[in-house]
Amino acid sequence: MPRTSDITLRQVQERIKRLYGAKDEARGASGTFLWFMEEVGELATALRGGETPEQVAAEFADVQAWLATLANIAGVDLGAAVSAKYGLSCPGCGAEPCSCPSHEKP
Ligand SMILES: [Zn+2]
What we know:
This protein is mainly alpha-helical. The chain has helices at residues 9-47, 53-74, 78-86. The chain is globular and about 40 Å long.
């Protein structure tokens, strides 16, 4: 697969599977989830400031990569899942933009 700046979620999952699929399967969901959460923590640190925009972007990429890994292990098609839930409008109120009360999650 060539490098592209406009990669789909499915392509991310395929690339991650080719790169790390065997290791990911051996580690399993529980161990992978810990790595995912570690990356989320690194993203939080990056967003607090003091890092370059490139470093912040790289942390977003790491979180997305580990999310793709978890989806691979769980057998979830991320593109289909995101499209099914967020492809048209807010899943809570059905509007675009969201009109859910501000005290609710969306
Ligand atoms: Zn809403």
